[in-house]
Amino acid sequence: MDLAPELSGVSPTEMRATLGRFATGVVVLTVGGEHIHGMTANAFSSVSLDPPLVLCCVARDATMHGAITAAGHFATSVLRADQERFARYFADRGRPSGGAQFDPVDWLPGRHTGAPVLADALAWVECRLEQTHRAGDHSVFIGRVLGTGRGAGTAGLLFFDGAFGQADTSERRR
Fold first, then answer.
1. Please, are residues 31 and 71 in contact by the beta-carbon 8 Å criterion?
2. Maximum C-alpha span of the chain
């Protein structure tokens, strides 16, 4: 069954509104070194456990696209429910560029990549860029996981239907 003719009539506005009904986690992607940069993203996923691979999707015209391509590595900080301010900050195109964008944020350089890892993140993953796939106006970056870590907390930040929310597992852990 060929769905291409039917899909060609879907506008970007309709696509965003429809897929906004899918709850996603919220992360901050970062690159360290000469191309230091941060960006809020919700297009992030595990790909494989063996070998350990993850993916992130970045618009080809985004500063982060060039940063990941040039550096060959990235880190991802998974945000806690109370870190919405970081999601908003790294989504703001008016923030400073380069290393100055990290001045108001507590972070540590990742052990494997040097990419900023946000302090108190729920979890973090450091990756070496393994593959890049062109996909429409974005690229899908596949990263080989070099290291991971988990912070404290039981509530993660979600994005659903254009708004932030949370998933809290504290009741389940009792």
1. yes
2. 52
Tokens of 30: 């970062």
Structural domains in the chain?
Answer: 24-107+117-168 (2.30.110.10)
The end-to-end CA distance of the chain, in Å, is 48
Q: What share of the chain is helix, strand, coil (3-state, %, to 5)?
A: 25, 45, 35
pTM above 0.70, yes or no: yes
* Strands of the chain, DSSP E: 24-25, 27-31, 37-41, 44-49, 52-59, 73-78, 107-109, 116-118, 123-135, 138-150, 155-160, 163-168
Splitting the chain (174 residues) into consecutive groups of 10 residues, what average pLDDT does each group show? 57 85 92 96 96 97 97 98 97 95 97 96 98 96 97 92 90 66
**Residue of 69, 44, 50, 28 lying closest to 144 (CA atoms):** 50
3-class secondary structure, 134: strand
Q: How many CB atoms neighbour CB 97 within 10 A?
A: 10
Strands 73-78 and 27-31: antiparallel
Residue 82: partners with Cβ closer than 8 Å, 6 or more residues away = 155
**CA trace torsion 122, 126, 130, 132 (10° rounding):** 50
